[in-house]
Write a structure and sequence with these properties.
Blueprint: H1 4-13, H2 19-27, H3 32-39, E1 50-53, H4 63-78, E2 85-90, H5 96-109, E3 113-116, H6 123-132, E4 137-141, E5 150-156, H7 165-176, H8 189-194, E6 198-200, H9 203-214, E7 227-231, H10 238-247, E8 252-255, H11 281-290, E9 294-298, E10 305-310, E11 316-319, H12 321-339, E12 347-351, H13 358-364, E13 368-372, H14 376-388, E14 395-400, E15 404-406, H15 416-432, H16 437-448, E16 450-459, H17 462-478, E17 483-484, E18 487-494, E19 499-502, E20 505-508, E21 517-521, E22 526-531, E23 537-546, H18 549-570
Parallel strand pairs: 2-3, 2-4, 3-6, 7-8, 7-9, 12-13, 12-14
Antiparallel strand pairs: 1-5, 4-5, 9-10, 10-11, 14-15, 16-23, 17-18, 18-19, 18-21, 19-20, 21-22, 22-23
Helix pairs in contact: 1-3, 4-5, 4-7, 9-10, 10-15, 17-18
Length: about 575
């Protein structure tokens, strides 16, 4: 294990070019626990790149950890081809622009051409730029929907997907060979521009991206009269989302003023996550005055989309990612079926933790539903696999319960610009029938059954937190519960060992290995437990199906009470 105090002293002795970091180091001089947390390890690098709290230290997001990661990426690319290039985008978070330009400067110094957006850009536009500009990799500086103290550094492969496990391991091996201070090459950003090693991505790339999004619309009729309140949550979505809504005829859009413009401090929503009601509170307050059909919210990097819908009582109800995912699956399938554009052997993709309700909906339309591990990169992999066989047109939709949606193969990551357009088309379509999205969801429940889902988060901060999380997962593996909420565990799956258990029978799981446990309950329902890949927490996904809404909600509440003791027992 690293000597945290020794590394701290090395940082204190270095001539740091970010004065904020030097001040932080001085402030923690007499705080050994703080020093240990910042320096006991390197910030983890994996398929999601880097993500962590901003600040000084090897276990923090700062210019030095970003430069080191970029040097590792440059070394990896140069070993695999001549004249490599990388596309770069960044969001509104604190120091995102600095990190993006520093990454470009390191790439340029290594002879790797950097294409960087000159303005804040949604994450899906990075995936688009990688593919459109034929780059060898992509970097997006973002921490998605995490609180303001976080930032991150996502790496994409040449196909526009987040990097594979193999590429992540290979890049990490290169990073580990780089000394954080002496091993990084870099030049001044402006010098890189002058030498042509850094270039700004032109606006026509964004225009082409929006053109591709427009091709995903279900019908061509303009959505005249639809009234929308929209919040980009102080992130990157405002320009692209309002442009795409204008293109489909949604002219009456009121943007939440407190959250309209970029601000990495997120002053009105400490958790800028459209899954959380507090993040939408300013929008909901504005809805009381504007009385729109729909409240639309995108997270800071504009890859997730949340909504609230006006009900019959005039109030606004939030809809879950699972509900919107199922509604969109049904809407796209039905609309394309009616238009005669539903392909032969259509494919939809979702994740193992997303609602089981997607299964009967897909069966109704003759759609092959594929389930993958948590993370939209796995949905992107399915699109890439279809493309490799010349069958990309079979893909019609992908979604995950955490508010991520994509209806075409033009990018390989979730896209809230696309989702915003489709949700508005869907709301307009039902509005013409005198129905809301809430009415449409009730109709699907009556047809397919009352599925209810919930997510529970259990936080574990610091070095000890990582140890406790590992202990919990090990305990659940070695001593799996026989009953949860009074219901027998009829089967379980361990995705780490790729083994599925059902009574006395075992079978192989045809998915990549991952630290995920699934417990299937007698009579239907399940609990899935996994550590988060981006935050120090364990997530528990609860799923039930009841004869009616009351029974389903009662079963879900029973699970909510039963799961915390399971987690806490191992902590």
């Amino acid at each position: 294990m690293r000597d945290a105090m020794k590394e701290y002293k090395r940082w204190c002795a270095a001539q740091l070019d970010d004065p904020d970091l030097a001040a932080e180091l001085a402030a923690i001089r007499d705080k050994p626990e703080e020093i240990n947390d910042r320096f006991y390890r390197d910030l983890a690098f994996g398929t999601g790149g880097l993500r962590g709290v901003l600040g000084a230290g090897t276990n923090r997001m700062n210019v030095y950890t970003v430069r080191r990661a970029t040097q590792g990426l440059a070394n990896y690319l140069k070993k695999r081809g001549d004249s490599p290039s990388v596309a770069i985008a960044y969001d509104s978070r604190i120091k995102s622009d600095l990190f993006a330009k520093q990454a470009a400067a390191v790439l340029a110094a290594n002879g790797v051409r950097a294409h960087i957006y000159p303005w804040l850009s949604p994450t899906p536009t990075l995936s688009w730029a990688v593919r459109s500009l034929h780059c060898d990799a992509g970097i997006c500086v973002t921490a998605s929907h995490n609180p303001a103290k976080y930032n991150g550094y996502k790496v994409y492969g040449p196909d526009g997907c987040q990097i594979t496990l193999k590429m992540a391991d290979d890049v990490l091996a290169e990073i580990e060979r780089v000394d954080i201070f002496g091993g990084v090459k870099r030049m001044d950003f402006e010098t890189g521009l002058q030498k042509g090693l850094i270039g700004y991505i032109p606006e026509k790339v964004i225009d082409a991206f929006l053109d591709e999004v427009m091709k995903q619309r279900v019908f061509r009729e303009p959505c005249t009269g639809l009234k929308v309140v929209y919040t980009p949550l102080n992130g990157t979505g405002r320009v692209c989302v309002t442009r795409i809504l204008g293109k489909i005829g949604v002219k009456d859009v009121t943007v939440v003023p407190e959250q309209e413009y970029p601000d990495g401090n997120f002053p009105t929503c400490p958790f800028p996550n459209p899954e959380i009601r507090e993040a939408l509170q300013k929008g909901l307050e504005l809805c009381e005055t504007v009385q729109p059909d729909l409240l639309l919210a995108t997270d800071p990097d504009c890859d997730r989309c949340g909504i609230a819908v006006r009900g019959k009582d005039g109030g606004y109800a939030l809809m879950t990612g699972n509900e919107v995912g199922v509604l969109l699956l049904d809407f796209i399938a039905r609309g394309r079926q009616k238009a005669g554009t539903l392909p032969e052997r259509p494919v939809a993709v979702t994740t193992i933790v997303s609602t089981d309700m997607a299964t009967p909906v897909a069966e109704h339309y003759g759609i092959e539903l594929r389930r993958v591990l948590t993370g939209f990169k796995y949905i992107g992999d399915q699109i890439a696999e279809l493309e490799a066989h010349g069958e990309e047109q079979r893909y019609i939709f992908g979604f995950e319960e955490s508010y991520g949606y994509l209806s075409g193969g033009y990018v390989r990551d979730k896209d809230a610009v696309d989702a915003s357009m489709l949700i508005c088309q869907m709301a307009y379509s039902y509005r013409k029938q005198g129905r809301t999205l809430l009415d449409a969801m009730d109709a699907l429940y009556r047809r397919y059954g009352y599925y209810e889902n919930a997510l529970m988060n259990f936080g574990f901060e610091g070095e000890d937190g990582m140890i406790r999380m590992g202990r919990i997962m090990d305990g659940l593996r070695k001593n799996p519960p026989e009953k949860i909420a009074g219901r027998s565990v009829a089967g379980r799956s361990d995705y780490q060992t790729s083994v599925r258990y059902d009574g006395e029978k075992t079978s192989a799981i045809a998915l990549p290995k991952s630290n995920v446990l699934e417990f299937r309950l007698d009579g239907g329902g399940k609990v899935i437990v996994r550590p988060s890949g981006t935050e120090p927490k364990i997530k528990a996904y609860l799923s039930v199906r009841g004869q009616d809404k009351k029974a389903s909600l009662a079963a879900l509440e029973a699970l909510k009470k039963a799961v915390p003791p399971l987690i806490q027992a191992g902590a």
